[in-house]
Structure prediction request, 102 residues.
Amino acid sequence: MSWLVEILLPLTDNEGRDFGREAFAGVREELVARFGGLTAFTRSPAEGVWEEGEGRERDDIVVLEVMVDALDRSWWAAYRGELERRFAQDEIVVRAGEVTRL
Prediction:
């Protein structure tokens, strides 16, 4: 059994300014160095939509996936906090699910 960890990163800040390739390249390099690889869905941004107060909010996002044999929840929580600071977000979604390799 392995874990698939997904990170949903916004393409722009709250004012609509692009973060730029460097911001994502840094995250990619950190994850590859720590876990040996990743999959990045960057060609067509996904769209995140959620209810906020009286209206809806949306973000164009990229999804990064990392497969790990053991889930270090405290490391991922700290890394999520670092990404929230780096990308100036109230919350960045980092989620994990068990996967079976076939």
